[in-house]
Design goal:
With about 240 residues, the chain is α/β, with parallel strands linked by helices. The protein contains eight helices and 15 strands. It has a five-stranded parallel sheet with strand order 2-1-3-4-5, with helices on both faces. The chain has a five-stranded antiparallel sheet with strand order 10-9-8-12-11.
């Protein structure tokens, strides 16, 4: 039996999928979820093979939900917004259904999934690694802490530091470990607000209080909380450019 979870804040959208799934005896709907927070708990509990996932939801988006899952299942996206039918879906063979979902289009998506469930699950992981955010850059970072989720708006980040296989995200409220790489954050944080000043550090430009020379050909950035962050020889010109100098 294939276990499925429906994740959509619109009850009508979920009811349509439930109705269509009646023709698939091999599919068991183990839970319906109204939002991403509820979905994380459900996925951890049931370990579904397949999820039907809305992209735009309150609290966290469908993309953000996928990024905090350790072992994401196969996914069929559902959305009312055609602009979210991203090229990445086609590149990674991930299917999506535009609302209102027609029965024929639903059957096509199910045929694709059922033809090779393992491949579809692998495609989900590839998509996560290459998500193209609709607005260009991430505006918040989600940190999974056990069964709970911490949402950190990027404007609350002071700096990020590499920490072995993790990245330590420093805020006024404390620091949080992310399993993303520093390269991921360099790529997805707004470069007008954040700059990588060292192989181990990214800082928010507005948090810089002053710069001071430090050892040969290097500097340190003194942040508003008096934390000192190393600025490498290669990071210094990037920081100067970001500061408009």
């Amino acid at each position: 039996m294939i276990k499925a979870i429906l994740i959509d804040d619109e009850p009508l959208a979920r009811s349509i999928i439930i109705d269509y799934l009646k023709e698939y005896n091999q599919i068991e709907i183990v839970q319906e979820c109204n939002d991403g927070f509820e979905a994380i708990k459900a996925i951890n509990e049931h370990r579904p093979d397949l999820i039907f996932l809305d992209i735009q939801m309150p609290k966290i988006s469908g993309f953000e939900l996928l990024e905090v899952l350790e072992n994401p299942p196969a996914v069929i996206f559902t959305t009312a917004f055609e602009e979210y039918a991203l090229k990445a879906f086609e590149q990674h063979a991930i299917d999506y259904l535009l609302k209102p979902i027609s029965k024929s289009r639903f059957q096509k998506a199910m045929d694709k999934y059922l033809s090779n469930p393992i491949s579809q699950k692998n495609n989900t992981q590839k998509l996560i690694e290459d998500i193209d955010y609709p607005n260009g850059f991430i505006e918040r970072v989600l940190i999974k802490r056990g069964s709970s989720l911490k949402v950190i708006p990027t404007n609350k980040i002071i700096y990020l530091a590499a920490d072995d296989d993790y990245v330590n995200i420093h805020t006024d409220e404390g620091s949080y470990l992310s399993n993303k790489t520093l390269m991921y954050f360099e790529k997805n944080l707004d470069p007008t607000s954040f700059v990588r000043v060292h192989r181990s550090f990214i800082i928010q430009i507005d948090q810089i209080q002053r710069l001071e020379p430090y050892e040969k050909d290097s500097h340190r950035a003194i942040l508003k909380n008096e934390i000192r962050v190393s600025v490498s020889k290669t990071g210094y010109p990037k920081l100067m450019k970001a500061l408009g100098n």
